[in-house]
Design a protein that fits this description.
Blueprint lengths: L1 H28 L9 E8 L5 E2 L3 E2 L6 E6 L4 E4 L3 E3 L5 E2 L3 E9 L2 E9 L8 E8 L5 E2 L11 E6 L4 E4 L3 E2 L11 E9 L2 E9 L13 E5 L5 E4 L3 E4 L2 E8 L3 E4 L3 E7 L2 E4 L2 E6 L2 E12 L6 E4 L4 E6 L6 E5 L5 E8 L2 E9 L2 E10 L4 E8 L7 E7 L9 E2 L6 E9 L8 E6 L5 E4 L8 E3 L7 E10 L6 E11 L6 E11 L2 E10 L7 E7 L5 E7 L2 E8 L7 E9 L7 E2 L1 E7 L14 H6 L11 E3 L3 E5 L5 E5 L33
Length: 657
């Protein structure tokens, strides 16, 4: 039995030995290293965030995730890859663009979309979509572009607002061109225009107070203030602003009203010459029914007087029961045109020169619209007058131009003219015509007949006389008769007011300046040097009409502000020098003489000679009554231009102090 188990045991041992051998082999095998896995491929695990691009936009791979697969089936995210195109490459191929990722010679790809290349956008034109808020302006106001909108049109059909355009007229520009003004808007070579309206430049006129001729106190120069300018000699200055009390003039400065007859500029006084708002009159007459003479007073007829120099001035009036109609001229020596309205008839009388307040300018015949009408004027040229005045006492023969004008729409038929004066002292002659009757040929509308007259006035026993010449024109065919009157004023002569001056510092450059203002508003300038005297000859107005004597400054140069102080004496109606006393107990009275007489209203009244003292910067006013039975001709004054030796004798030399 034992022998039967031996093979079995041997088999078991063999199997067990084989089993042990296998186990040992397996144990030996596990201790040897395994080979590394190899990269099989890569793939895009996550595409970039941006997959759509505009033309020429840079490639952006932000967000891209790349993974690798290996031979042992493992995977991992890798970074060291490269891309084609490279990141931030500008994409200029429209459509789908493949982006290839390479990693260890393995590749993967994805696509992005690139837009088509845009068509180039060009500016085609610009236009004003909305005009500025303000398109109408006053002259000189500032231009304003507020509210304007400008748009551009482009080649792709789009439009857009434009901000950085340029205007040919800048905001804030003063508009000094009246009418329609074109404004051009520009941008990138394109333009559009619009227009604005600028009103006419307002005419700046001097206030009526300042109109007329003014005499400068320090040098006697005359300045004529017109509506829009001031004229001095051949210089013309523009009025820039004015109201009731001030007048601003380019270059000259600002004039300020001081009184009715005084204005101040740069501390220099100016005195009005000849007065203002002078009244004058005409007489309106109609033909009588019987004699057909122009003698019937026409009342209730309206008319207006217009200044030829001051276009803005007009005075309206109506004739009274005696046919007198009164108008006002703004200044002395103003030329007036009168328009008379009688129903549907308009009578125009031009060329009336108004010299003095109260001038009577003759008659105007109202003959009816279907008849002709005549106006007569007589003119003595200024160069014959002495400071604007005529003198009697056979002083001088004046040449007068008599003008007969057809002032109607109808032709004047042949007529007869007579010239005479009811004043026997007034002698009127002519070398052209027989003044007792001469023929006026047919005169068409506006035509004139001119006759040269000689006029001289004889002996006078009054300071002055108002007289005139009568002119009668007769139509022998109809019996119509015109009568007109040429007023004249003659003065008896001149009287002296002798003035002496002396500087208490004995300054030989000092001079005393001043004026004598006549009762009719005209004036005469004088300048008396240190240690000298001078008679100022003035026309005779009579004892009831005082003169204004004004001492305006004692100067050492031609600048009034460079003033000094002076003693002066005045001796009216005498050529005898009144001595000047500059020391002693009496000088206090001289310094105080006249009191506070530094304005027209405070003028000190005097009737005889006096001595006084002019302080620096002050103006002394005196109302002086001067009249005498002894008088001189106009040549008595060195200020008069006419040479004449009076029968009463030449003016004596007053000499020096």
């Amino acid at each position: 039995m034992k022998n039967r188990f031996i093979p079995f045991v041997l088999f078991f041992c063999f199997v067990f030995a084989a089993f042990l051998t296998g186990c040992m082999q397996d144990a030996n095998a596990k201790t040897e290293p395994a080979p590394d896995p190899t990269l099989s491929s890569i793939y895009i695990s996550q595409k970039p965030a941006k997959l759509s691009y505009d033309y020429d936009e840079a490639l952006d791979l932000t967000g891209l995730v790349v993974k690798a697969k290996y031979s042992d089936d493992s995977e991992k995210t890798v970074d060291g890859w490269t891309a084609s195109p490279k990141p931030w490459t500008r994409l200029t191929t429209p459509g789908s663009v493949t982006v290839t990722i390479t990693y260890e010679e393995k590749t993967a790809s994805f696509t992005v979309k690139v837009a088509q290349k845009p068509v180039e956008k060009k500016l085609s034109s610009i236009y004003i979509n909305k005009y500025p808020d303000k398109l109408e302006y006053e002259y000189g106001s500032l231009f304003d572009l507020k509210g304007i909108e400008v748009k551009g049109k482009y080649s792709d059909g789009t439009e857009a607002l434009i901000d950085d355009w340029i205007s040919s007229l800048k905001s804030g520009t003063a508009l000094t061109t009246s009418g329609t003004v074109k404004v051009t808007i520009s941008y990138s070579g394109k333009t559009d225009v619009f227009t604005i309206s600028v009103k006419e430049k307002p005419v700046i006129t001097a206030n009526e107070y300042f109109w007329g001729t003014w005499v400068r106190m320090d040098n006697g120069a005359e300045y004529e203030v017109l509506e829009t300018s001031v004229v001095q000699g051949n210089q013309k200055y523009t009025v820039t602003a004015s109201d009731a009390s001030t007048l601003s003039v380019a270059t000259l400065g600002t004039f300020t009203k001081e009184s009715d007859s005084v204005m101040i500029c740069n501390n220099i006084p100016y005195f009005r010459k000849g007065g203002a708002n002078l009244e004058y009159s005409l007489k309106l007459v109609g033909f009588t029914s019987s004699s057909r003479a122009a003698g019937t007073a026409m009342s209730g007829i309206k008319g207006k007087g217009k200044s030829e120099k001051y276009k803005g001035f007009e005075s309206n009036s109506e004739s009274d029961s005696e046919g007198n109609i009164k108008f006002t001229a703004p200044t002395a020596n103003d030329t007036q045109t009168v328009e008379i309205e009688n129903g549907n008839e308009l009578v125009v009388v031009s060329g009336l020169n108004i010299s003095n307040s109260g001038d009577y300018m003759g008659t105007v015949a109202l003959v009816g619209k279907d008849d002709y009408n005549l106006k007569i004027t007589g003119t003595i040229s200024d160069n014959q007058k002495d400071n604007g005045y005529l003198f009697g006492n056979n002083t001088k023969t004046y040449n007068m131009l008599l003008t007969i004008t057809n002032i109607s729409e109808n032709e004047c038929s042949t007529s007869v003219c007579l010239v005479e004066s009811a004043d026997t002292n007034l002698k009127v002659t002519s070398e052209d015509e027989d003044l007792s009757g001469f023929t006026i040929s047919t005169l068409p509308k506006g035509a004139e007949k001119k006759v040269n007259l000689s006029v001289v006035y004889g002996e006078m026993n009054k300071p002055y006389v108002d007289t005139g010449i009568s002119v009668t024109i007769q139509n022998p065919f109809t019996g119509q008769e015109w009568k007109d009157y040429i007023p004249l004023r003659f003065f008896k002569g001149t009287i002296p007011i002798t003035i002496a001056a002396k500087s208490h510092e004995n300054n030989t450059n000092a001079a005393l300046n001043g004026f004598v203002i006549y009762p009719d508003g005209n004036n005469q300038f004088f300048a008396i040097k240190h240690n000298d005297c001078k008679p100022v000859f003035v026309p005779t107005f009579g004892s009831d009409k005082p003169y204004m004597l004004v001492f305006s400054g004692a100067t050492v140069t031609n600048i009034l502000s460079d003033s000094t102080e002076m003693y002066y004496t005045v001796e009216p109606v005498s050529l005898t020098l009144r001595p000047i006393v500059t020391s002693g107990s009496e000088i206090t009275n001289y310094i105080l003489f006249g009191g506070n007489n530094h304005s027209e209203d405070d003028a000190y009244k005097v009737t005889e000679g006096f001595e006084a003292y002019l302080r620096k910067g002050e103006i002394d006013y005196y109302s002086i009554t001067a009249d005498s039975d002894t008088f001189y001709g106009p040549s008595g004054s060195i200020f008069y231009s006419v040479s004449y030796e009076n029968e009463k004798g030449d003016v004596p030399d007053t000499g020096r102090l």
